[in-house]
From TrEMBL, chain A:
Domain DUF1638 positions: 49-204
Protein name: DUF1638 domain-containing protein
InterPro entries assigned: DUF1638
Pfam family, one: DUF1638
Species in which this protein is naturally found: Loktanella salsilacus
TrEMBL record, chain B:
PANTHER family: METHIONINE SYNTHASE (PTHR45833:SF1)
This protein's name: 5-methyltetrahydrofolate--homocysteine methyltransferase
Species annotation: Loktanella salsilacus
GO biological process entries: homocysteine metabolic process; methylation; tetrahydrofolate metabolic process
SMART domains, per database record: B12-binding_2
Residue ranges of every copy of the B12-binding domain listed in the record: 102-233
Transferase listed as a keyword: yes
Protease keyword on record: no
Transmembrane segments: none
GO molecular function terms listed in the Swiss-Prot or TrEMBL record: cobalamin binding; metal ion binding; methionine synthase activity
Pfam families, per database record: B12-binding, B12-binding_2
UniProt KW keywords: Cobalt, Metal-binding, Methyltransferase, Transferase
Residue stretches making up the B12-binding N-terminal domain: 8-102
Length: 208, 233
């Protein structure tokens, strides 16, 4: 499990299977997409993931998606991009429109896991979100890239204005919930557990 | 880095010392930067020259390497912290020597957003370039911006946003300035990683700036224009 997560963070996942539709997704969504595919018998969906760590460099997302669409568009009937805006400032949406492929709507995965409507209505301004993936990959994804392993004194510079950590849980996993709770404690934030399930991801994939 | 340990800053000539300070700033070495600043002052450098040539010069390199993906956020923060150490020594001296003030900027992150690293960096570099900066912090609603612009008699409004969900709020602020007939009184600069030139134009800002160095240059250009207009007026 953790080997796969490390791969999803830094390298991504190559497409496999003989489906008619290719899902081009963020590595942070691989477990969730595979779980939904298995649960719903969506065998027509193949999955390719880009490195989740692109999160920290959103300017790399749009070119990487464009290249992957170009590489695979002849081998599939359809391609669906499982990325929200993710800080591309509308550029990913524009590129997808130009290439004639659809993508999931919303600003980021925290929003579509909560449900985009619920997210827009929520007032979590001083909260930092975790998802299942982020809880598992917190060190590789947040702690180390932000230099907190080497420079713990930066914690306050990053999180000084935060009051809580909201764990948006896709699954019921006691060990993972405990891990999220420990992360909150390490950061000095109030822990809030919110079971979201897969939110808008389910309906988006059902239509993919 | 055992070589570096042996370098005695006071033994270096001015040129080598400034080059060494660029390296130290890049590596976020606050104490060395403070020492370097004190040495240059001791050698009779004007505080303003120390600020621009040694500190701003070094930080510009850090900014460029962040933009190019060579450095990431923690390195930028450590460098900024080192620069702050140097600026703390220079600030009182600058006040005494009556260093030039180019203009006054009110800056803040927009409502709903608590990302502030980029905004802080822009504020610091603007200060380093000779602007007076009033930092409103994070999560600013339109009234806060407008009250501060008036109270501070500012020339420039700077707004920062890092979230797709908070970027549109910049337009709310600009539209309110228009409604109140105040838009022409201020230069409006916007920035933040998800923004781009097109967005800046669409919301009616004077300029989008992709980083702190561009922000400084843009602010200087617009201030010069403002003065020309005023004297032609
Ligand atoms: C560091 C960071 C954080 C830190 C912020 C710490 C802090 N005190 O600011 C932490 C970890 C706390 C954080 C939290 C969150 N973040 Co964040 N974060 C980032 C990250 C990695 C870097 C931003 C940064 O500081 N860059 C360093 C500075 C130097 O660069 P900069 O901000 O771009 O500023 C430069 C220029 O843009 C310009 N500039 C900036 N402002 C201004 C203003 C003016 C007037 C001018 C002229 C110029 C200018 O000059 C600056 C200096 O050169 C970005 C991704 C990225 N690479 O941009 C995500 C990112 C912005 N975050 C994101 C998200 C989703 C969040 C969270 C919701 C995540 C969560 N799990 O809860 C929360 C937000 C909560 C909230 N209510 O605001 C997303 C946004 C996605 C979207 N659709 O909008 C991004 C894009 C990551 C991603 N791809 O998912 N984040």
């Amino acid at each position: 499990m953790s080997d796969l997560d490390a791969q999803l963070t830094d390298a991504g996942l190559q497409p496999s299977g003989g489906g008619k539709v290719l899902l081009l997704a963020c590595g942070a969504l691989a477990h969730e997409i595979l779980a939904l595919r298995a649960a719903n018998g969506w065998d027509h969906l193949d999955l390719q993931c880009l490195p989740a760590i692109y999160h920290n460099h959103p300017e790399r997302i749009t070119p990487a998606i464009s290249a992957a669409v170009a590489a695979h568009k002849d081998s599939y009937q359809r391609i669906f991009v499982v990325y929200a805006d993710c800080g591309t400032g509308g550029l990913l949406q524009a590129a997808c429109a130009e290439m004639g492929v659809e993508m999931i709507s919303g600003p980021h995965c925290y929003s579509f896991f909560m449900g985009n409507e619920a997210f827009a209505a929520a007032d979590d301004m001083t909260a930092f979100y975790l998802t299942d993936f982020l809880a598992r990959q917190f060190d590789a994804f947040v702690w180390r890239p932000l230099g907190l392993d080497r420079h713990p004194q930066l914690l306050d510079t990053y999180f000084g204005n935060y009051t809580s950590l909201i764990y948006l849980a896709q699954t019921d996993d006691a060990a993972l919930t405990e891990k999220a709770r420990q992360i909150a404690a390490r950061m000095g934030l109030t822990f809030i557990h919110r079971r979201t399930g897969y939110g808008d991801l389910t309906s988006a994939l059902a239509q993919a | 880095m055992s070589d570096d340990d042996e370098i005695i800053l006071a033994d270096l000539n001015d040129e080598d010392l400034v080059a060494q300070m660029f390296d130290d700033l890049y590596d976020g070495m606050k104490e060395e930067i403070e020492e370097g600043v004190n040495i240059l002052i001791g050698r009779g450098w004007e505080p303003y020259r120390v600020l621009t040539e040694a500190l701003v010069g070094g930080m510009t390199i850090v900014g460029a390497d962040f933009r190019d993906g060579i450095l990431f956020v923690p390195e930028v923060l450590l460098a900024a912290n080192a620069m702050k150490g140097g600026m703390a020594i220079l600030k009182p001296l600058l006040a005494e020597t009556g260093a030039p003030t180019i203009g006054k900027m009110v800056i803040g992150t927009v409502k709903g957003d608590i990302h502030d690293i980029g905004k802080n960096l822009v504020g610091m570099m603007m200060e380093g370039a000779g602007f007076e900066v009033v930092d409103l912090g994070i999560n600013n609603a339109v009234d806060g911006y407008i009250d501060a612009l008036i109270a501070e008699k500012a020339d420039i409004l700077g707004m920062s946003a890092l979230l797709t969900t908070t970027m549109p709020y910049m337009k709310v602020v600009i539209d309110t300035l228009i409604e109140k007939g105040m838009r022409e009184d201020y230069i409006v600069l916007v920035g933040g990683a998800p923004l781009n030139e097109e967005f800046g134009k669409a919301i009616g800002a004077d300029a989008y700036c992709r980083d702190a160095a561009v922000a400084v240059e843009t602010a200087k250009t617009w201030m010069a224009r403002k003065h020309n207009r005023a004297s032609a007026g």
